[in-house]
Amino acid sequence: MSAARLLQRCDQLAAISVTEGAICRTYLTDEHRRCNQQVMQWMEAAGMHAYTDAAGNCWGRYPGVEDMEQALVLGSHLDTVRNAGRYDGILGVLAAIEVVERFHARGRRFPFHIDVVGFADEEGSRFGATLLGSRAVAGQWDPAWLELRDADGIAMAEAFTRFGLDPEQIAQASRAGNKLLGYWELHIEQGPVLEQRGLPLGLVSAIAGARRLQFTLRGRAGHAGTVPMEMRRDALVAAAGAVQIVDAQARHFGVVATVGKIEARPGSVNVIPGSCHFTLDIRSGDDALRDRALETILREIGEHCECAQVAMEYCEIHGAAAVACAPSLLDAGRRALQRCGLEPLSLPSGAGHDAMAMAAVTDIGMFFLRCREGISHHPDESVTTEDVALALDVLEAAVTETENSMI
């Protein structure tokens, strides 16, 4: 019953979208407000006191048996990418509410509070910066973000005011210094491993650290019909070789690397490309390994471009360290999976999550839920009722295993 209700609620939230016929819900919008209001109603019905914090995150507190400061946090995010699926992030928040509802129905209390959070902006779809909600909770808010503007030119500070929040009070959202026992996040896998292994759930061992770079290669433009092949300095040909280097070295080092965007200029059918711009995203759960791979990639691309008489420039536009899940929560997670009759498979997360930010203030643990063909950030996201039911059992067991570890 609770799994079916959870999926119905995912459908209900999917209808709260700025885009008709598709799902899009971004930070500090009317859709964000309406989503928070609905989720907080469900939190209240599950026995929690619900509220919105100074950064726009919505919270529900299920009080412990005594007046205490310790709290265990469960949750994920409620915002989406554009043309999104209905489960990425959202399922984790609603699962946490369902688990608390189970405890509330049985009158079960713990020697700590359970705080359920729906983070306001993990995806960064509106202003570009990611993990905004969880970074505020972790006390890592950068005031410079308030100057970021969306596609309509609206500054984030103005969006805060329109939403009914005071941008000068964001620091009040911080839980840094609070006595937090840990943070559990349930999330669809966003990959095909669990499906290939025939497993409904897995335990996340670490969240990969990512570095992103932008490259510019400069050759010489020329007429496509009059410049002999041996005299060309074709920037796009050099870039094609660079892409092959990225792929080969990523495989060699055992990391993942992607050239996701490439553009040749001047971009005419009869002109040799004089310049080429491309991006690189490289990730690993081992920062040192990732950095060695990147060092090799940069050296080989540089040598390749020198031979091609093409100049290379690059700059790093993003860097995030890998985050390991806490050994104590990994142990609790394994026991939770085994208690529910499941193999305790551990696997890394190649995608970023709010847990990365929360690791600055507490131990983190994550479960992945099998999703069809590993599809995410797309309307075709799909999970089964049976898998969701198991996920609720495992998340419930993880809470009780966390309690047992305190004894």
TrEMBL record:
InterPro entries in alphabetical order: Amidase_Cbmase (IPR010158), Bact_exopeptidase_dim_dom (IPR036264), Peptidase_M20 (IPR002933), Peptidase_M20_dimer (IPR011650)
Principal EC category: hydrolase
Ranges for domain Peptidase M20 dimerisation: 209-305
Alphabetized NCBIfam families for the sequence: hydantase (TIGR01879), PRK09290.2-5 (NF006775)
Binding site for Zn(2+) 1: H77, D88, H187
EC number(s) recorded for this UniProt protein: 3.5.3.9
Cofactor(s) listed: Mn(2+); Zn(2+)
Keyword Zinc: yes
UniProt remark on cofactor binding: Binds 2 Zn(2+) ions per subunit.
Listed CDD domains: M20_bAS
Gene Ontology molecular functions: allantoate deiminase activity; metal ion binding
Binding of allantoate, residues: R212, N270, R283
PANTHER family (UniProt xref): ALLANTOATE DEIMINASE-RELATED
Record protein name field: Allantoate deiminase
Subunit architecture: Homodimer.
Positions contributing to Zn(2+) 2 binding: D88, E123, H377
Annotated family: Belongs to the peptidase M20 family.
Natural source organism: Microbulbifer rhizosphaerae
Keywords: Hydrolase, Manganese, Metal-binding, Zinc
